[in-house]
Amino acid sequence: MREGSLRIYRNLDPWMSLSEFEQVHEDLPGPGALCLFLGKRSLLLTGDQFQMIKRVCQDLMLSIGILSTKAKGCAFAREVCSSRNSEWPVLLSKVRLGIHIHKKGIRCRLCGACGELAGLRSLMIPRGELRFAIRPQVVPSGLISFGPPAYSIPPYSVYMLRRSGRLVYVPVLCSLSVEERIESFRLMRKVRVHEEMRLKPPFSIELGKVIEERRAILREFSRMSVPAENFALYSSVGLENLLPLLIDDNVGEFYADSPMTFAYIDHREFGRCESAVWVTPEVIDRLLAFSAASSGRASDYMNPSIKASIKTSEFHARVSIDAPPLSFEGASVDVRKFFRNPTDFKMLVKNKTIPPEAVSYLLMKLRAGSSFSIYGESGSGKTTLAIALDLETPQHWRKYSVESDIAENITQRHLGKHQVRLLAATGSGEAAERRRSVLDSLLHKSPDYVFFGEVLSESDSRALFQILASGIRCIHTVHAPSGEGLLRRFAYQHHIPLISLSDLGVLVQMRRFDIEGNFARRVVRISEVVHDEPPVEIPPLRDLFLWDAASGQLEPTPAYRKISIAA
């Protein structure tokens, strides 16, 4: 069946028998086409991979023709001929075994068939190389039309398809030929042999270091294109299935609820999408091992949850994994990526996160030296907005960035800005004391501005208000359902004096909306604390921008209009 650049084969598997191959021989894909096999599972092959299967099947058919004339006098020939209705990988294994073993016998030397078969090149490709080169991609059922790709992240082409009303992210390894995949496999085998012979302990166990060490060794053997090199390197550590999600800057976060499921993603442009990235237990085990190496803490029965920052030259991500017995259906994975090209206000306006008039107000308050509290639910875009604000600070400001376990802010030195980044982990005991000491020390370092990643605990809140009371401008994020709820949390849970709440500057609320199955992040409220003298209760908030459900937009309030007229 033909459908554009897609060939669909129903009730068929790539590991077909030779008789099944003869049935589809007339409907083989052309260059650049994709092949979708609809059987027990939906499997996708590139046209190049199918052409390799074609060459192998044709050589197997030729070998059966050769061996059929020798069947009376050769046990090897009889065995192969009697298995002609088997799946072609099974038949290929028997032919190889015969060539390797039976040719040593006297009768086989007289027969001479093994020598003829050895001249068929496709039959001589080692099994591991062939399996690596033509391994099909598991895709969700229900995909029957592809069309053109949405964009490319070499060596992948990304298709955005619809299935049951939901968008599906489908990365396909289109730009690497079968020969290049085989060459990648051979080169990585050489790298491993080199490591076994040359490297001495202690070995690097962090992913970024492993990749760069292998990259250096790989370049001693061959020069490959960067996409092919990255595919080979991440294949060598067992993470090739996740590679498109890791290197695609449009993917902000991806999840796998359990092994043997498809990952789903939060896309920068399309929101929450399903994906055709199949997550196996082996992939999760590799990711868990590298996360443990990065965090310096093992994941075991007593500590089934792990959270780590993994950074390579291709990506920087925060990995959270919950393993059994905590996650009793198998390990669950949440990988949040930090964009190498962070979202700025221009992009936030383009994707309708915030209107231009509200951006102008925030930038005016930033230049005037106001502090910012950005609050909302998890995954609502708080850190994205905080970084966009931080990018707008003047170049001459001296800035400190203080974050918890994982650095979410980006380095800005290449932008000509003065920035010191500090990592002070949260926790109890020694870690909490160290974090408190780091925050207290800021008062003696003369910063113009502090990026305080996330306020998590009472000690964080106390440090925050100590910084604000000292006249240091600050931007921070915090989880809270509303502005009033945030003030109550500070006052009653974290025991901040009511008079100190007036030190807060601009409060910005983020919210995540579910729009036709896709998540959209929006600024829904911008307000300021009303200063009462002296405060006898939690101070009220003056709203300057509010979300209008009817128009689906953030609208300025009369209070903001008065400010604008007065200005």
UniProtKB/TrEMBL annotation:
InterPro entries: AAA+_ATPase (IPR003593), P-loop_NTPase (IPR027417), T2SS/T4SS_dom (IPR001482), T4SS_GSP_E_ATPase (IPR050921). One of its GO terms (molecular function) is ATP hydrolysis activity. Gene3D superfamilies: 3.30.450.380, P-loop containing nucleotide triphosphate hydrolases. Residues 368-500 form the AAA+ ATPase domain. Belongs to the GSP E family. This is AAA+ ATPase domain-containing protein. It comes from Methanosuratincola subterraneus.
